[in-house]
Amino acid sequence: MNSLRPALAALTGVCFLVFAAAWLLGAAYFGIRANGGVRGWLRASRSSASRRVLLIAGVALFFFVVRHTRGFWEHLQFWQPELALLGALLALLSTALLLWSR
After folding, report:
1. Beta-carbon neighbour count of residue 14 at 10 Å?
2. Is the pTM here over 0.85, yes or no?
3. Which one of 36, 44, 69, 71 is most buried, by most CB atoms within 10 A?
């Protein structure tokens, strides 16, 4: 069962990457479509650029803090294969639902 743990972690990571790619590509596609092409989308995007920079900085800060405080979280981790499989199934189903809805 210990070999299952890295596989489920990788599966969850792949689901997250698929989510991020679908979200970004969908945002770009619908932004371009709604604003009459790439130039219109870029023009419309300038007004929200500062908020996007803050969002990206916040996400980067979150990942930095989580990565550098790993020792703090170690005592909270436990492994239950049944719950891990359920979580992986939910990650797969939610990723499939995301792709279907896009």
Report:
1. 13
2. no
3. 44
